[in-house]
Amino acid sequence: MSAQKYLRAIAVPLIAVIVFLGFWEWLVWVNGWPKFKMAAPSDLPPAYQRHWGLFLSMGWQTLWRTVVGLLLAVIFGTLLGMIMGFSRTMRDALYPLLVGFNAIPKATVVPIVALMFVGQHDFNTVLLAFMISFFPIAVSVSIGLSTLEPEYRDILRSLGASQATIFWKIALPKTLPEFFGALKVAVTLAFIGTNLMEIVSPHGRGLGALFDSGRTNSDFPLMFAVLIALAFLGIVLYYIVVALEKFFAGWAERAPS
Amino acid sequence: MPPAALAFHIGDGMKNLIEIKGVKHAYKTDDGPLPVLDGLEITVPEGGFVAVVGPSGCGKSTLTRLIAGLMKPDAGEVWLHGERVKGPRSTVGMAFQNPVLLEWRTILKNVLLPLEIVPTKLSKAQADERARFLLALVGLEGFEDKRPSELSGGMRQRASLCRALIHQPDVLILDEPFGALDAFTREDLWQTMHRVKEREPFTGVLITHDLRESIFLADQVVVLSGRPARTQYVLDVPSKGPRTLDDLYTQDAVDQLAILRHQIQIAQGRAAPEDAPQDASA
Q1: Are B96 and A157 within 8 A, CB to CB?
Q2: Does residue A80 form part of some domain?
Q3: Do residues A47 and A27 share a domain?
Q4: Cβ pair B143, B107 in contact under 8 A
Q5: Are residues A90 and A16 in the same domain?
């Protein structure tokens, strides 16, 4: 029974991927698309082989700037969320500003940031990853804190506990499931932010820049190889967050009944 | 402090553990102040158990927050143990309709929560032992390491009761703790309450909507008038040893319920005070 379950968990998704790659290969073959128009899956391994060193160094660039941007977003977003969660006045004051800021498509912010801090590519990229990803974290933390049922507070407050104790013992852990839900969204967003900046800013680095150089040369195998590398990194980051969630907020998952 | 004053305070406090004297309170709303309590008088002797009943929205929960020191009344005084209540104090245990257990802790760790706040003389092992004893007392033996999400509503309420008792509070405040349970579970918990009170004596205030619950558990039932609430009627429930559910079907109980029902109707403004409550029992 358990062996069958294992097979299902691995074999079914694997077959789906193989079918997808087969269909893609067939589509390119049947249309007779040349390499400067479209790449087939069989073109990818040679592309990785040729640029392997670049993929490693550029992939690292993208990864660390995304992670740093995300960490800043977590710190700033949590602080902002706490301020808005605990103070009604601050919530009323900050909410419209935040919503307005979030409504601006970040692609339009890229050239502004690139011009303002021209030449500081690392800083620009981290800044954009941060700007695009702190919003969901701030909102989720503030909602988590402001919707805490008063009885939870009263249980500790009636014993004379301080606000800080109530925060550490109840408010913070109770907000963790919402926080991790937002972090899953934020990690993907931060990744988008990093790539936007890498692609747009001149003389950039990272996988986005590698993609851009593939584009200028009409090197479709390279461009697709970058896309898949990006997908791979995104999946890795996402599952790191999932693992953290399991560890810190696993209690929120109900046992199947 | 002069000895005379000290003696007066101790003597006063031993007689009546909870004293609520002329308490008035109003909430601020956009349409001006909304008075909820107006001249409330309640006294609970040490070891006594008072049930407070009244129409919904009459300020019963405000009363619990006043006793717990979570808010201050606009006028009047709340005294616990001969000391005026000015803020929260660790000698109070609370349980609400919502059991508010912390989902990320085991049942045992939930019960131990107050001891992380209140200074205690118990060692870690002694505290554990006490928590296990209380859990066994309410019939939760074997559930110590379960999570709240694995328990039924009635079981969670039992755990919440243990948490309210772990630090041996002088006063137990119960704000409709059985209100959301089905009838059978509720009657089960009533009997558990009597068992608990026998082993872990406390002075209790119970807010409830259930008149049968009030006469089964309390030795005094206070009926509040409609908003703004004042003490409208006090019914003594004479106790003849341990109670059983059968006691609810005796003539005494029927008479008491008739009186209380009539008082509630007066509080709701649906009956006149001069309709004799004694006749209702006939």
Answers
A1: no
A2: yes
A3: no
A4: yes
A5: no
Range of the domain at B253: 46-68+87-91+170-280
- Whether the CB-CB separation of A191 and A66 falls below 8 Å is answered with yes
Residues of B in contact with A149 (CB under 8 A): 98, 100
The two three-digit tokens of residue A117, written as one number: 């801090």
Examine the domain organization and report whether A77 and A22 are in the same domain: no
The token pair at A114 is 């690139």
Flag whether A257 is in a domain: no
Closest Cβ–Cβ partner in A152, A158, A165 for B92: A158
CATH number, position B259 = 3.40.50.300
Contacts of A174 in chain B (CB under 8 A): 102-104
Taking CB atoms and an 8 Å limit, are A174 and B89 in contact across chains?
no
- Count how many Cα atoms sit within 13 Å of the Cα of residue A61 in the half-sphere of its side chain: 22
| Tens-place pLDDT, residues B68-115 | 888 888 888 888 887 888 888 888 899 988 889 999 999 999 999 999
Interface predicted TM-score of the whole assembly (ipTM), two decimals: 0.75
Are residues A158 and B96, on separate chains, in Cβ contact within 8 Å? no
**B210 φ/ψ angles, rounded to the nearest 5 degrees:** -105, 110
Distance from CA of B236 to the nearest CA of A (A): 29
Residues A13 and A73 in one domain: no
Domain extent at residue A6: 1-32
pLDDT digits (tens, 9 = 90+) for B121-180: 888 899 999 999 999 988 899 999 999 998 988 899 999 999 999 998 889 999 988 888
The model's pTM: 0.77
Count of the separate structural domains present in chain B = 1
* Nearest-CA distance A159 → chain B (Å): 4
CA distances from B17 to A50, B126, B184 (A): 85, 28, 32
- Nearest residue of A to residue B105 by CA position? A251
How confident is the model over B176-225, as pLDDT tens digits?
888 888 888 888 889 888 888 888 888 989 999 889 889 888 888 998 88
A249 with B104: Cβ contact below 8 A: yes
Chain A, 155-184: which have a CB under 8 Å from a chain B CB?
155-161, 165, 169-170, 173-174, 176
Mean pLDDT of each 10-residue bin along chain A, 257 residues long: 80 92 94 88 91 92 94 95 89 91 88 85 91 92 88 87 87 90 93 90 85 89 92 92 90 67
